[in-house]
Design brief:
Subcellular location: Membrane
Pfam families: TPT
Protein name: Solute carrier family 35 member C2 isoform X5
Region (Disordered): 230-252
Largest sheet: none
Strand content: under 5%
Organism: Balaenoptera acutorostrata (Common minke whale)
Helix content: over 70%
């Protein structure tokens, strides 16, 4: 339920950095999705203050992360429109940030594990390395698709796509694991889908408006065209003079 606030933080930072314009329809989309997801995941549970603070802080930092990522990807001066270029520059920094945590929490366990460094069964080692390789490929594909989506659309669209994934996960949990869904949960599901559908419709209308015919600018407003016209005018005069000369010679 606390995680549903991520889309709100992304909207706030998008407005702060002027990546999105404040529109009533956009606010309505975010409120419908966040409120619907909150209602869809609402249930009686034990409240934990530490967990609440961690998840809320993660949502806050996630909003900053994806907003700044959108600024990097959509700023032409940086030349990072290609998702592969972005991953090439960001992944080493992410590795430096995660490696100390890995070394503290998992380094000792991994170094003494019989599955990798102290292996005795070669088949087991190959299966573990194959699983790691497959996970790396999937992680690369996920990061590539996320950066590509942000570069072509916005961080808000990425967040909404992630919420749709979470809704599908909850529905599968209810169908396969037998989780109980109340009337309030179904109402939240309907609100969440309404917000997602509204966002898709607004994006379609906006892209259709951008692809329409655009008015042509005057020739005088383009300095390159002005220079081209100025250089072509003497050539036209020279051609007219040559044509007049040959006509006169033919008449003689």
């Amino acid at each position: 339920m606390t995680k549903s606030s991520a889309v709100l933080f992304i909207l706030i930072f998008s407005l702060i950095f002027k990546l999105e314009e404040l529109r009533a329809a956009l606010v309505l989309v975010v409120v419908l999705i966040a409120g619907g997801l909150f209602m869809f995941t609402y249930k009686s549970t034990q409240f934990n203050a530490e967990g609440f603070a961690l998840v809320l802080g993660a949502s806050f930092i996630g909003g900053i992360r994806w907003t700044l990522t959108q600024m990097l990807l959509q700023k032409a001066e940086l030349g990072l429109q290609n998702p592969v270029d972005t991953m090439f520059h960001l992944q080493p920094l992410m590795l430096l940030g995660l490696f100390p945590l890995f070394a503290v929490f998992e380094g000792l366990h991994l170094s003494t594990s019989e599955k990798i460094f102290r292996f005795q069964d070669t088949g087991l080692l190959l299966r573990v390395l194959g699983s790691l390789f497959l996970g790396g490929i999937l992680a690369f594909g996920l990061g590539f698709s996320e950066f590509l989506l942000v570069s072509r659309t916005s961080s808000l669209t990425l967040s909404i796509a992630g919420i749709f994934k979470e809704v599908c996960t909850l529905l599968l949990a209810a169908h396969l694991l037998g989780d109980q869904i109340s009337l309030l949960n179904w109402l939240g599901f309907a609100l969440c889908l309404s917000g997602i559908s509204l966002h898709i419709a607004l994006k379609a209308l906006h892209s259709r408006g951008d692809s329409g015919p655009k008015p042509l600018k005057g020739l005088g407003s383009n300095p390159d065209l002005e220079l081209l016209l100025r250089t072509s005018q003497p050539e036209e005069k020279d051609n007219e003079e040559e044509e007049g000369y040959f006509v006169a010679q033919g008449q003689q």
